[in-house]
Hints:
By secondary structure, the chain is α/β, with parallel strands linked by helices. 36% of the residues lie in helices and 18% in strands. The protein has 6 helices and 7 strands. A 7-stranded mixed β-sheet has the order 3-2-1-4-5-7-6. Helix 2 links the parallel strand 1 and strand 2.
Amino acid sequence: MLISSRTLAEYRAMFDLYDTDLTGSILDCAAGGSSFVAELGERADAIATDPSYARSDDDLARVLRSDRSQCVQMTVDHGNEFVWDWYGTPERRDQLRHDAAERFLADRATRPERYRAAALPELPFADGAFDLVLCSHLLFTWAGPLDRAWHAAAIVELIRVSRAEVRLYPLVHRGAGDPVPFLGELADEVRAAGHQWQERPVDFRFQRRAGVMAVITQ
Length: 218
């Protein structure tokens, strides 16, 4: 799986986030090389978690550069599968990737306590530790190698560490954005467990079919 770098601006668009959402305790789960926590600074008590954080700074920087190159090549090879309205141009998207990775690496070096090495479906946090839990481009994106049982366990874990709300984006496979056959079943299981599951349009779409996030509330 690629380790991607995304900016706070992308998070705001993907998750329909406003300033009022960006306070309190926040978990960015499977954050990769994103600069979300770095850009928030001290505005919120934000933590990022990702299995790649077990790597050294130098090794992680090398992987981020390599994966960024693969992302660029993917957009070249499959350009017709993407919508460029939000980014404008491939060059701007690549620049955002570069800027996010550099900011992430600098912040991890100065505030390492904000970056925890961990992987779903087992997170090292207490029940209800966070007001808001965000998870982008892991669930459903990788619904090929990660099966239905993994997704069910991951969602249960994200709900466990949230005291209020979980937001998931996108709700489709990577690449062309094919539908995930078990998405509806998982939503029904969340509701049966006593939580609310809503699918909400967002002002961000890069994959053609990826203009919706899921919002899970307690």
